[in-house]
Amino acid sequence: xxxxxxxxxxxxxHHVNSYALAASAAGVGILALVQPVEAKIIYTPAHRxxxxxxxIFYLDxxxxxxxxxxxxxxSYFGENSSAKGIEIHPQHSGDGILGQSHWAxxxxxxxxxxxxxxxxxxxxxxxxxxxxxxxxxxxxxWANGGKGVKNRYLGxxxxxxxxxxxxxxxxxxxxxxxxxxxxxxxxxxxxETIPGKPIIAGKTHGKDVITVEPASLGHLARGAxxxxxxxxxxxAK
Length: 237
What we know:
Layout: H1 10-31, E1 41-50, E2 56-59, E3 69-77, E4 82-90, E5 96-100, E6 103-104, E7 112-113, E8 119-120, E9 124-132, E10 135-139, E11 149-160, E12 163-176, E13 181-192, E14 199-200, E15 209-212, H2 217-221, E16 230-231
Parallel strand pairs: 1-15
Antiparallel strand pairs: 1-13, 2-3, 3-4, 4-9, 5-6, 5-8, 5-11, 7-14, 9-10, 11-12, 12-13, 15-16
């Protein structure tokens, strides 16, 4: 049974529907070919902007066609105030983000993500810039006081066939033009294939890691083999 997905406005849903379905289809086709018994971590490189011009992106961590998390750019404008930010939204019961009180943690590489962490099932703000009372205000670990961050990690918990898995998503966040805009770039994500096993933020190499590089739509349309689009631990770099 397909899990329910949070509703967005028709305009936003239409804006990303084609991309999300195409990306999911490409991922499913590839991972069907690369599920070796010894594989424990599946890593996917990415380069996806989340900004006022590309406001939402659905993250399907394990490429099964189910949207696990939603990354979104939000904005508000009032008469004497405004706010812009980047948020992460778990999409299903049992999914969660490492953080505290609606604020997503910006983890550094090497942090262990597992059952000992506090995962929030609510919508989480990563970075926010607000302007009110004639002053700029920066909140959230990813805003970093208006400096932004590079190569930080979201700690992810999500459910596959009724079992909890852990993963991470690596992002850069920029706050620029004196706080006029906030934007993020997703640069990669990974998950542990063994249910309940912790994962190390940023781990992308090792005998237990397989790197998946989703094929482009044109590549698939030409009928090219999807095998060439992934790198195993012993493949040439």
